[in-house]
Amino acid sequence: MKNTRKHFPVLSQYIYANTASAGLLNDDLMEWRQEHDLDYLIGGSIFRNRVMEKIIAETRQSVADFFGAKKENTALVQNFSLGLNMLVDGLDKKHKVLLVKGDYPSVNWPFEYRGFDISYVDLDENIEANIENIIRKNNISVLALSLVQWTNGLKINMKFLTKIRNEFPNLKIIADGTQFCGTSDFDFESSPIDVMGASAYKWLLSGYGNGFILFKDDIEDMFSVNTIGYNASGHNLNGRDSISFANHFEPGHLDTLTFGSLNFSLKYLNTLGRNAIENQLKLLSQKAKEEFGQLGLLSKVIRDREDHSTIFNIKGDNALFQKLTDNGVICSQRGDGIRFSFHFYNSIEDINTVVKILRTGV
C-alpha cells in the first residue's frame, strides 16, 4: 500500500490520521471531476442527456457489486441521514427499537424524534452480550446501530449479529456503515444485516454529497415508504404507482459529479483490492492498539476487545491536541479525548511518529 501515498497530496505535508472525519481525495479523482465539469460547461443539457443515465446506472451497479448487494435493492442517496429518515418515516410505531447509547446522532435521532418505544444499550466492552439480553427481555423488533462507533472505533462483531439474527428471526437489523464501508471485504447479501446505509465521504474516499442504502428482499414488508418523485419512476408519466421500493429513495435527480465520484472511487479501491485494504487496516489497528495501550491511553472498553477498527480515542487534553497539530498530525477531538483514524494510505511509520510525539507529551 506504500505506493498509494503518492495519489494523495495531503500526505506529503501531514500525517493524516483523520479519515473518520473526512476521507482524502486523490489526484486521479480530481482530474476526473474537472473533466466532468468541463464537459458540462461546454455541453449544458447535451452533456446532461448524454451522461446522466449512464453515470447513475453505472454507479448503482458499482455499489451493488462492491458490497455484494442486488442492484434492484440498491438506492443512491445524498447521505446516510437522509436515507435513514426516509426509511424510518415508513416504520409503524408499534415496533420496539434498540439503540446504542452515544451512537452517532443521525442513527439515534430519527427514532427518538418520532417517538418510538426505545431501549438503549451501553457502549462498553460487553455490548454484544448486553444487546442480546435486551432483545430477549424487551421483545425488540428493530436493532439500529453503527457497525463501527464514531467516538472510539468500537467494532460490532459480525458473527454476533448473525447469531442474534438466527435466534430472533423477526428482528430487523439496520446498520450505519459510514465508518465501516471501505474497510472490509464485505458481502451484504450473505450478512445478517437487513438494511445498510453509508455516506461515502469517509473510508470510500468519494467526496461529499453521495451515499447509498442497501436492502434485503423482504424489507419492504415492514416499511411503507411514501417518498415519491418523477425521477423515482424512471421519468415515466404512467409509472407513479409501480415504483420499486429502492427507487422511492431517489425521488429527484441525482448529481452526476458526486455520484460519478463514488463510482470512480469504488473502481479505484477495486484496483487496490478489498482484501488487501482489509489486511493493511488490520496491521495498522494491531500496531496502534499495542502502542497506545502500552502508553496507558486506551479505555478499558477498547483494551478488552479482540477485534477493533483503526479508529482510536486516546486520553488527551487541549494541550496535547495542539502539540499534535503543531507537529503536523491531523486528528480530531472527540468527547474527552483525541481521535486518530488510520486508512490504507497510512503506514506503520505514521503510527511510530504519532507515538513519539505522545511520549513527549504525556
What would your notes on this structure say?
- With 362 residues, the protein is α/β, with parallel strands linked by helices.
- It has 2 domains: 2-26 and 273-361, Aspartate Aminotransferase, domain 1; 41-271, Aspartate Aminotransferase, domain 2, CATH 3.40.640.10.
- The chain is 40% helix and 14% strand.
- The protein has 11 helices and 12 strands.
- The chain has helices at 27-43, 45-67, 80-88, 105-113, 127-138, 158-167, 256-272, 274-294, 300-303, 318-326, 348-361; strands spanning 15-16, 74-77, 96-100, 117-121, 142-146, 172-176, 195-199, 211-215, 311-315, 329-330, 332-334, 337-341.
- Helix 1 (27-43) runs antiparallel to helix 2 (45-67), helix 3 runs parallel beside helix 4 (105-113) and helix 8 runs parallel beside helix 11 (348-361).
- The mean pLDDT is 95.
Helix content: 40-55%
Q: Roughly what is the average pLDDT, rounded to an integer?
A: 95
CATH class of the largest domain: Alpha Beta
DSSP summary, beta strand count: 12
Find the CATH superfamily of the largest domain.
Answer: Type I PLP-dependent aspartate aminotransferase-like (Major domain)
Beta-strand content: 5-15%
CATH topology of the largest domain: Aspartate Aminotransferase, domain 2
Give a quick account of the main beta sheet: strands, pairing sense, barrel closure: 7 strands, mixed
Count the DSSP helices.
11
Distance between the termini: 31 Å
Count of spatially separate domains: 2
CATH-defined architecture of the largest domain: 3-Layer(aba) Sandwich
Give the structural class. Answer: alpha/beta
- The helix-strand sequence is EHHEHEHEHEHEEEHHHEHEEEH
- Global morphology: globular
Quaternary organization: single chain
| Rg measurement, Å | 21 Å
